[in-house]
Hints:
alpha/beta; TIM Barrel; Rossmann fold; Immunoglobulin-like; 3 domains; 6-stranded mixed sheet; 19 helices; 31 strands; 24% helix; globular; disordered N terminus; binds beta-D-glucopyranose
Amino acid sequence: MRRGWMGGACAAALMLALPALAPPALAAPPAGQPWMDPKLDPDRRADLVLAKLSLDQQVALLHGVMPLFLGAKRPPNVQISAGYMPGIPELGIPDLTESDASLGVANAGRTNDDATPLPSGLALAATWDPKTAYAGGAMIGKEARQKGFNTLLAGGVNLARDPRNGRNFEYLGEDPLLAGTLDGAAIAGIQSNHIVSTLKHFALNDQETGRMVLDARIDEAAFRESDLLAFEIALEQGQPGSVMCAYNRVGGTYACENPFLLTEVLRRDWRWPGWVMSDWGAVHSVGAAVAGLDQQSGQQLDKQVFFDAPLKAAVASGQIPAARVREMAHRYLRSLFATGAVDDPVVAGGLDTAADGLVAGQEEEQAIVLLKNNDFTLPLKPAVHRIVVIGGHADLGVLSGGGSSQVVPLGSKVYPKPKIAPQWGIGPVYHPSAPYAAIKARAGAAEISFYDGSDPAAAAALARIADEVVVFATQWSSEGMDIAMKLDGDQDVLIDAVTRANPKTVVVLETGGPVAMPWRDQAGAILEAWYPGARGGEAIAKVLFGEVDPQGRLPITFPASEAQLARPVLPGSDQNAVETLTPTFDIKPFTVTYPEGSDVGYRAFAPSGPKAGQTPLYPFGYGLSYTVFRYSGLKVTGGRTLTASFMVTNVSNVAGTDTPQLYLTSGPRRTQQRLIGWSKVALQPGEAQRVTVTAPARMLANWDVAAHGWRLDAGAYKVAVGPDAATAALQGSAIVAAATIRP
Length: 743
Ligand code: BGC
């Protein structure tokens, strides 16, 4: 596989130097099985196996069941999980044992499990830290091995085009460079365990409403510069063994039988050698094999097991060449060899929940975003007299998102499903890490109490006589549905009453994505904690009391209202917006157009974007600290790409961590805003550091459809350095040379 376009200094400046996949221990290959020699190239090894396989045996590798339900036939030793494909034990080819894993080994939603849930994907993206992404991936990959899975259905990187997408919590926000970089690091972390990770859902599965039937339409150049770019970067950085194609149509054709996506982009342009697996219930014809699909997953969810008898019949009739079937099996086998899944078979046992929980906790500590802090409301002072904690089930735990990614560890509290929820899956799950207990442990001699918030007037009465008030608020979201951009139920009424009663109230949000905050002006402080994961309560308390400097930065714009969205009315929401058990649920096909093109999120609010002049509630990249940082001394140099160097100074008397961001604001041909790099710096009081950020050349370029490449026009490129997308603290420019970068 091509090793990525960032190369040299660019990679060093921004990207994590990902540890190389450690080769499994070498052993002499068994007699007669030369493909078991790990010294050989994965493609060669796949060919050696294929030379032994009949067409029937090849086809048997290309489809499999969802052992979870619908009467799946599975051998007694195969656990109930998302997916299973039998291997060929006599040839050393393992079974493929798949678990969902956007945020932890979901293990088919098994309750009282011992797997460790990470904070949500948006939380990870809020860390802006590839090392943290790698550590989380490495942890869940290790747990996968320990639970007997060699494939994780992880790596979701669909762009947050709509804050109401019910799966945004599984993804990494609205910017292709940030999302792709962190997703690639997470995938590399997973695969460092010699197991396979996927990259999903390819592509434009950017809303849940009508995901099985909708047809997403976008201009090709805009597609390449936005959603596809996120996948491309993740693919280059993470080198996943597999890509999962999406449910929806793209440009009129289902994603899993779409030659543009699966053959032109993935194979011809990106030269990716792995295998494409379908999403569960996303295959509509045997012709999908011709378009580039290699494997049919969850076969009982489709109308037919297209990749079994119909595939063989298509070969017999000449409709599909036998060589194509061989290529499909080749791609599958070569990824099993390339990741180490063949040489280092999984062995169940040995989970260390306590150690793994620390990884989740450290991620959340970096992910929490301080949105507002009036008059030093935070950090909390333990020396006060009376603290009251209200709402959000903070006495029980922290909220998590629903659907196939759901992890339900021992001690979780599962609530009944709300009225609007998919017919499958379970209701809101609270992970057993109670913020209230963690706050109490730090409250010193203060009197502290918890109230569930069911009566706003009673909550206000408690808040009025307290020195410090922390109110928790939640928004549940799930795969299979989209959500309104607001807190669940009447929580806005509760917060309104409490913040009016006590202006020092701290509001802690546990949400799937952006929400409106009608009470914002009255609140003393606001923290966005996302879905906080296995040790979330502890992480929130550490930030509240100042043991950890809040250092999360928004990976998604918080619009002021749904009226500011590209599509104020969610397409398809006039029909049944929630998914039923049958995959082809009862909703008529419809089209979703993306006239905003690549101007997703913050790019739309830029002076060059369609929402110019409008102000969101909080811009992309935003987040306060308990520290104050100043930027100065910008130097910009050009050439083949652009490098910015500037000073960051901590001008306060506490240590803290900042994430200065570098944005392109215009090029010689186009005015457009693009995040082109960032850095993360930890500074002691008074400390100053020079930071250098080099933009990957492709981030400055535009996709040229006619030239079929990334076109860099010669001329002046203007950039801004700032603490978020809406604040240009420093500005400069440099001349960059013309180039066409081939995909
Ligand atoms: C989801 C995938 C998931 C698969 C298997 C599908 O409904 O879209 O993300 O991996 O189910 O559970």
